[in-house]
Design brief:
heterodimer; A: alpha/beta; 8-stranded mixed sheet; 10 helices; B: 325 residues; alpha/beta; Rossmann fold; 35% helix
Chain lengths: 329, 325
């Protein structure tokens, strides 16, 4: 059984207008998203800000409700569960947030922070066992037992993120949802945390949903990657397949914009510019206004189609895309 | 020294913060010179002093911070000792700055146009109408479509990338000699980041302007800089022309930084990360600030701070280089 199955999830934010007699503004943020997180795999959700990647992870965690569609975690539909039923699932599904400065309570010691999930689920109540569990936990994320009595402000950003990861691991989960866990960290520390995430995924047989805006990071960590744009999945493929054979014009453009730390290479490269052409709003394809290949075929709504084995792409113009992509990285 | 005289010459710049635990020195003698028409990238992690350095160039430091030593020579004058009224003539007009977060650097209750116009009128004696015309031209120049309509809109009606374009327009309004860009693309998406970098680079080379480009991302530097200065713990670790730095990094910190960058070009199983954490300002090692994390550290490194060894313009502060020499 797959740890997470997302089936046709849609989400629309509704905002009542002031003095509007019941008129509402509707903003669709997720449109018909279907994804599967496979056992002991890392699924990357990559896209620019505002594409809906965080909303999707919140829906999976039950922090937001989907407008329609189903999220099935461990065989159970999250939307239809009772509070108690959901608590049971939560134990096996934990989260690491982006900013380690705001996701740890500044008035709690590390030991209290790590104990909280154990208290909520009533685990390891015996003092000595609890102590041992906590010590093993901090060691597994590369901190030491003496750190347990300290407060978050005594740690650097990278160490705080280690604490946040330890908290997520406290309940020995099967699924880890990591929402941009390294984007707030310094470059030299980012590599440490990425190594740690890879290590715990292998050691603990975790399945991970990894939300990121950074393609390089996604390539390092993910087994499968889904590219999102304006609430839709535009491309979805095994990681190596995607990076060696990007199909969607948007994915191509994103790859070409990633800076490469090599001045000689950088001079040769040309970034595909994504200039928006006005007057193409309301097009069936959300990317059409910025797309270099937009043509008559784009009048039909793009559906995710299998273009190569295991490689799905939502682009109606794909068969007509004559220019050979030179932006595989 | 490179043939042309430097536009900006920073010599032994020191900045301290006064805190409850005493004074903490965050810049410990930074020196560089910026030739005309060139881009110098200052690369550093959080706490390395890169932003403090940028703010001190225009004396925009918070009240708790002070320039305690050194000179900032610009156009024959020392900016560090200029009076506030003289400094006002330099800020914006001769040296201008782009900040990290475009959304919060614009005033939300004034239209974008008013803010641009204000900048122009503060330094030039021209009519409001002409200032407006100039502002619209500037908005067009930074790639804002329908500039005339956009002129009357507020910052919240602009996206992050658009706001940064407005900031760039504002910074370039008075044709400054030096542009200081403090992490101008950190808050933006990759595609927008690429556009903004190109824009800065194009405008910089068109106008023959010099620029100091501050970033934490070494990968960005490859695209925009002529020369790179790597900052760590308030000290310059390495300074070199961009090709030399990427081809042959001399300092272990620069080597570590380059190695720990995640590559999009190939899949790696393990990243050679730099162990340990960046130093907390005020609690650095008395010798080389990088010594506690350095895989090649000698005993000497913990006691004595290495000077910048200069090898044909490629400078690095590391004791290992002394032995080789």
């Amino acid at each position: 059984m797959n740890p997470i199955e997302i089936k046709n999830v849609c989400k629309t934010y509704v905002r009542k207008r002031f003095l509007s007699f019941g008129k509402q503004d509707q903003t669709p943020v997720l449109q018909d998203v279907s994804l599967t997180l496979k056992d002991n795999q890392v699924l990357g959700l990559v896209g620019e800000s505002g594409c809906g990647k965080t909303t999707l992870s919140k829906i999976i965690l039950g922090l937001e409700k989907a407008s329609s569609g189903h999220v099935i975690v461990d065989g159970k539909d999250v939307g239809s569960l009772s509070k108690a039923g959901f608590k049971k699932i939560r134990r096996f599904m934990q989260v690491v947030f982006q900013d380690p400065y705001s996701s740890l309570d500044p008035r709690m010691t590390v030991s209290q922070i790590l104990s909280e999930p154990l208290d909520i689920h009533g685990l390891y109540k015996d003092k000595q066992t609890r102590r041992k569990v906590l010590e093993e936990l901090v060691k597994s994320v590369g901190l030491s037992a003496e750190h347990l009595t300290r407060y978050p402000h005594e740690f650097s950003g990278g160490q705080r993120q280690r604490i946040a990861i330890a908290r997520a691991l406290a309940l020995d989960p099967k699924i880890l949802i990591a929402d941009e866990p390294v984007s707030a960290l310094d470059v030299s520390v980012q590599a440490q945390i990425l190594n740690l995430l890879k290590e715990i995924k292998q050691k603990r047989r975790l399945s991970m949903l990894f939300v990121s805006h950074d393609f390089a990071v996604a390539r390092f960590l993910c087994d499968e990657v889904a590219v999102m744009y304006k609430g839709r999945i535009l491309e979805y493929a095994p990681s190596e397949e995607l990076f060696s054979n990007p199909q969607h014009p948007y994915t191509e453009a994103l790859f070409s914009a990633v800076p490469v730390p090599d001045p000689a290479h950088q001079k040769k490269r040309q970034a595909l510019t994504l200039s928006s052409r006005p007057g193409m709003e309301g097009h069936p394809c959300p990317f059409a206004p910025r797309c270099a290949y937009a043509c008559a075929a784009c009048q039909t709504p793009p559906l995710l189609k299998e273009v190569r084995p295991g490689h799905f792409c939502a682009c109606a113009a794909l068969p007509f895309k004559t220019k050979k992509s030179s932006f595989a990285v | 020294m490179i043939s042309s005289a430097p536009v900006l010459d920073v010599q032994n710049l020191r900045v301290s913060f006064s805190t409850e635990e005493g004074t903490v020195e965050v810049l410990k003698g930074l020196s560089y010179s910026l030739p005309k028409g060139k881009v110098l990238a200052v690369v550093g992690e959080s706490g390395s002093g890169k932003t403090v350095h940028a703010l001190s160039l225009l004396r925009l430091l918070p009240p708790t911070a002070q320039i305690t030593g050194g000179q900032i020579l610009f156009d024959g004058k020392d900016l560090a000792s200029l009076s506030e009224s003289q400094l006002r003539k330099v800020r914006g007009a001769r040296i201008s700055m782009i900040f990290q977060d475009p959304m919060s650097s614009l005033n939300p209750v004034l239209t974008v146009g008013e803010q641009l116009q204000e900048t122009i009128l503060a330094h030039r004696k021209i009519s409001k109408l002409r200032a407006k015309a100039l502002a619209v031209r500037l908005l067009k120049k930074v790639g804002i479509v329908d500039a005339a309509q956009r002129y009357n809109q507020y910052p919240f009606q602009f996206s992050g990338g658009m706001c940064q374009r407005v900031m760039i327009a504002m910074a370039l309004a008075l044709k400054p000699d030096v542009l200081i860009a403090d992490e101008p693309t950190t808050a933006l998406d990759v595609t927008i980041q690429a556009q903004i970098l190109r824009l800065i680079k194009d405008l910089q080379s068109q106008a023959g302007m010099s620029a100091v480009f501050i970033t934490h991302n070494l990968a960005l530097v490859a695209d925009v800089a002529d020369e790179v200065l790597v900052l760590y713990g308030g000290l310059c670790m390495e300074q070199a022309p961009v090709h030399a730095l990427f081809k042959n990094p001399l300092h272990p910190y620069t080597q570590g930084l380059l190695n720990s960058l995640v590559s999009i070009k190939k899949k790696e199983d393990f990243l050679p990360a730099i162990a340990g954490n960046p130093p907390v300002p005020g609690k650095e090692c008395p010798g080389c600030p990088f010594a506690p994390r350095c895989p090649h550290a000698l005993k000497k490194c913990f006691k004595e701070c290495p000077p910048l060894f200069n090898n044909k313009g490629h400078k690095a502060a590391c004791w290992l280089l002394e032995e080789k020499a």
